[in-house]
Amino acid sequence: MSCCDLLPDLLDYVDGTLAPERRAGLEAHLAGCEKCHLVLDTTECTILLYRAAEGPTLPADHRAALLRRLEEACRRARTG
Ligand SMILES: [Zn+2]
Hints:
By secondary structure, the protein is mostly helical. The protein is about 85% helix and about 0% strand.
């Protein structure tokens, strides 16, 4: 499983909607991957701030924007 493959799952994970069997795989990867940890930290921060300001769920357009940012971070991490 590569980091970029995990990005959509990562969003569901921080949203609390990721299926338990996928969650286990994601957590196993996160435990050994510093890059994903960094992305997750940033993502969780963003989402927690967003929730505090706006409410319990992310609107679809915000999710899409966040996913794009994650993909950029992932691409940067890959190319070093
Ligand atoms: Zn990773």
